[in-house]
Amino acid sequence: MLNDAAPVPTTMSAERFETLGAAVLSSIETVIDGKRAAVELAFATLLAEGHLLIEDVPGVGKTMLARALARSVDCSVSRIQFTPDLLPSDITGVSVYNQGERRFEFTPGPIFANIVIGDEINRASPKTQSALLESMEERQVTVDGVTHPLHAPFAVVATQNPIEMDGTYPLPEAQRDRFMARISMGYPDEAAEQAMLRTRESSSPLDRLTPVVTIDELLEMIATVRAVYVAPAVERYAVAIAHSTRMDTELRLGASPRATLQLVRAAKSRAALAGRDFVLPDDLDALAVPVLAHRVIPAGQVVGSTATGVAEAIVQRIVAATPVPIAAKAHR
After folding, report:
1. I need a labelling partner for 202 at 20 to 30 A (CA). Which of 116, 141, 241, 252 fits?
2. Given a cut of 60, is residue 2 above it in pLDDT?
3. 27 in a structural domain
4. Do residues 254 and 300 both lie within one domain?
């Protein structure tokens, strides 16, 4: 969603889009070794105007991926370290009384940036986590009855530790639903880990990272993703997948209409990065788990990583069982 006051950016050619996309992915991969799928999904989420949740155990590069993505784009970046004593006003900002002018002035918080890195988001209390709800959905912040718009592009890239670890709070369903995609980094393979020991002995590769895309170019890439064509048959397929999650007896909570919309938006971004100006059912199949699994809640008493695995398996089963429209079958 773009600011109404901002000019509407134009689209760019497929060749230019491919060149810039490859430059950003290559830039991130100088920092993140052997995680091409995670890097592509992180960038695709940014281009689809979504928010990204990176969940995994400590020390596998969650924050490093978020910072590498932010540094590859020439835009404003802020970082919020979520802790149990963090207050909502520490995120949104506060109104401070100016004695000289005898009026209150708003002092913006770190949420007022193009890319906001929320480190260990589930270590803050639910009250503090809820301070992000309005900004993530409506691209605005309301403080003391006054609404302050956020500038486009705006994306929250948050990291979190597994819920079963000490000192964590579960994210509310409403907040999980605002994240377009959730990814897991996983441990690096032995070769990548050995290479990391050599390359990071004396300095961090983040120190050498410079922006490869300007904010105007990023806005044009976002506009290009918006223009990707989605056939009615593919739209019906996306709706059928989401509807099936709501009817499945193994799920207590299915995917919301917002999830359907974000699944299609993410698919458009994936298609554009693949050099296509149209979405295939393959795009929906590939993104169903990262876009839908963190939104659904399995029936029963499973929690933590077990619940995550169960939800992913159920979504995979639903996608496999959902018929592809005849007009799109040839592309599956």
Report:
1. 116
2. no
3. yes
4. yes
Q: Which amino acid is located at 42 in the chain?
A: A
Query: Can you give the pLDDT at residue 303?
Result: 59
**Extended strands (E) in 92-219:** 93-98, 103-108, 115-119, 140-143, 146-149, 155-160, 181-183, 213-214
Tell me the one-letter amino acid at 199. T
146, 152, 144, 150: which is closest to 132 by C-alpha?
150
**Model pLDDT for residues 229-242, shown as the tens digit of each residue:** 999 999 999 999 99
pLDDT greater than 60 at residue 4? no
Burial class for 176, CB neighbours closer than 10 Å (0-12, 13-18, 19+): middle
- Nearest Cα residue to 96 out of 88, 107, 108: 107
88, 127 Cβ separation under 8 angstroms = yes
- Please tell me whether the overall predicted TM-score, pTM, comes out greater than 0.90 for this model: no
Same domain, 291 and 196: no
Total domains in the fold of the chain: 2
Cα distance between residue 124 and residue 128, in whole Å: 6
- Classify 117 as helix, strand or coil: strand
Give the tens place of pLDDT for each residue, 210-221.
999 999 999 999
Q: Give the C-alpha separation, 221 to 72, whole Å.
A: 14
With CA atoms as reference, report the closest residue to 173 among 251, 72, 60: 251
What pLDDT shows up at residue 305?
Answer: 62
Dihedral sign of CA atoms 159, 67, 29, 24 in order: positive
Whole domain around residue 236: which residue ranges?
228-324
List the Cα angle 137/218/110 in 5-degree steps.
50
